[in-house]
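Open question from group meeting: does this chain pack into something compact, or does most of it stay loose? Before anyone orders reagents, we agreed to write out a predicted structure and look at it together. Recording both the input and the output here so the notebook holds the full record.
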Amino acid sequence: MLNAVRLFLLVCLLFAAAARAAELRPVVSVSSPGAGSPYAMPFRIAEEQNFYLDEGLDARIMSGVRTATSVQMLVGGTVDATQTIGPTTLAAILRGVPLKIVMVFNDKPSYWLYAKKGIRTFADLKGRRISSSTPGSTNDRLLKIVLERNGIDWKRDLQIVYIGTSDVVIKALLSGSIDAAVLSHPGNLIAKDAGFTEVASFEKEIGALTGGVAVNESFLQKRRDTAVKFLRATLKGLKFFRTNREGSAKVMAKYMSLPIEAALKTHDASIPFYVSDGTISEDFQDKVLDFELKAIGADKRIGRDAVFDFSIMKALATK
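Structure tokens returned:
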């Protein structure tokens, strides 16, 4: 009887210790616009593979947050990091907000413009309804740039409607409620299989970033040890995504609501768009700034050091 009591007390102590340990883990909150996007996968893989837990962190990932809201949450301190590293983040930096892009997932955008049968050229888009995700997002900026380049006044010649995340957009296209849509993986693959027409590919638009990590400078300065642990775990998630096809597909199937075969196909199509070490060269940083400044219509110049800080990522690469 005494041994049973001792065992019970030991179990209680172990549970209490575990709970206490969990309470002591630093919390890192992350906003991610891509609820059903491959660009959220480094976070989700790091979560599923316990990379954050291994670093002693309690990572809390909020998916499906609109682009502008995601940056606003970072500015206001509601989150410690955001996946949003495109023009909206740069616009905040230009206003004097102390944000930094500290990690990059991709070096080219995986977006395509697909339209229903009968629409094959940009001229055919006049008078049509085209869907984009959210105002100010990278794919929205890309759409407007590409339309203007091809002689389409997007304010006058057609209607751009914003109906949410990629999974909602592809459903609207398939149902016929819109005429064309900007799609990412796996939406473009679904549209292609369904017989829709690829009007344009945005992948050659150099300088457009769609996934990575942006933080407030105070996070880097006041909680640098936590920032290092968070980025190390996220980098492990990125590398896992690039090298472990089956394991990554399982995570994608779970969070993107895909059959495993579709997840495998999406993974294979996504890999060419991802970097290996979470950084981009200084030359490419300049190209990103050129693209994003034009995208937001800013005539102000800004140095790369005011936007990018890859010091932690470079230190991790040497270990």
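Observations to bring back to the group:
The CA atoms of residues 245 and 267 lie 7 Å apart.
DSSP finds 14 helices and ten strands in the chain.
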